[in-house]
From TrEMBL:
Species: Zhenhengia yiwuensis
Molecular function terms from GO: isomerase activity
Keyword field: Isomerase
Keyword Secreted: no
Ranges for domain Xylose isomerase-like TIM barrel: 27-285
Name this polypeptide is given: Sugar phosphate isomerase/epimerase
Pfam families the record matches: AP_endonuc_2
Secretion signal, residue range per the UniProt entry: none
Length: 290
């Protein structure tokens, strides 16, 4: 199992100008990662995304750093002004970026869920046919380019293990699977071990993430924490410093034959470089012991 790092882990440094997205590729190589996952296309030099994606690909080739996955947003309910065909077309254009990058895995969202004001008597099951249509058409297109597509347990509405399992089985295409984020299940108050054991057979890609968990029945812990769907408090942590049973989740993935990338997605308050580096050391040990 190889270890990657999501460029999202460097977001704070990209945001304050310390690193560019282009710099993250060399930094990940320098830190000892086997690959990097790129999140969106974030030009720093005035170039268009179409131009910048070629710069990213060139830099990855120069430092001999594989791009393990390309991640970007999508919403088959509301994206592109609610025009499903237009959103599918836009996502296909992002698949073209993945091809330029040499990424063999893509993660796109399914939806953020119904807007508060127009939810009505509609839940996940009512959204499912439209999500299936979007995901299936995109994965058929991606398959023609040698790219597999995934959705992640992410964003509250499409995050529960039962829901993402239902989506992948409804799409029912061998090119479509899941990005299993072991930490994100806590955002909907699911036990990571139970959730990962449910969806592990569908994993095309995986995120290692850790959170500190505080009960919602207590006082708000303050800065750095956010609320789960059920009102508990989470704070991003260095891999191994929180409550996610990272090694056990890796063991579950291994037990079903998963041998793809395990990518760190660091969301902690610590210095990003230090937090990512400690997480890498811990993660390699967990993978060896799992």
């Amino acid at each position: 199992m190889k270890v990657s790092v999501s460029s999202y882990s460097f977001s704070r440094l990209i945001g304050n100008g310390t690193l560019t997205q282009l710099d993250c590729i060399g930094k990940a190589k320098e830190m000892g990662f086997d690959a990097i996952e790129l999140v969106e296309i974030i030009p720093h030099d005035g170039n268009t995304k179409e131009e910048y994606v070629h710069q990213l690909a060139k830099e990855a080739n120069r430092v001999k750093m594989p791009i393990s996955s390309f991640t970007f947003g999508a919403d088959f309910l509301y994206g592109s002004g609610g025009d499903l065909k237009a959103e599918i077309k836009r996502v296909k254009e992002m698949i073209n970026f993945a091809q330029v990058l040499g990424a063999k895995i893509v993660r796109h969202d399914a939806t953020r869920g119904y807007n508060q004001g127009d939810r009505g008597y509609r839940g996940f099951n009512e959204a499912l046919p439209r999500l299936v249509e979007g995901c299936r058409e995109v994965t058929i297109y991606a398959e023609s380019k040698g790219i597999r597509t995934t959705v992640e347990n992410h964003g509250f509405f499409c995050q529960d293990s039962e829901r993402v399992e239902k989506l992948v089985n409804a799409v029912a295409h061998p090119n479509f699977g899941l990005l299993v984020d072991m930490g994100n299940f806590l955002c909907v108050d699911e036990d990571p071990v139970q959730a990962v054991s449910r969806v592990a057979p569908y994993a095309f890609y995986a995120h290692a993430k850790d959170f500190l968990v505080k009960s919602g029945s207590g006082i708000n812990p303050g800065a750095g924490f956010f609320k789960t769907r059920g009102g508990n408090y989470l704070r991003g942590m260095i891999i191994g410093h929180g409550h996610v049973p990272v090694q056990q989740c890796i063991s579950i993935l291994k037990s079903v034959g998963y041998d793809g990338y395990m990518a760190i997605e660091f969301e902690g308050m610590e210095d990003p470089i230090k937090g990512i580096q400690i997480g890498l050391e811990n993660l390699r040990r967990y993978i060896s012991n799992a």
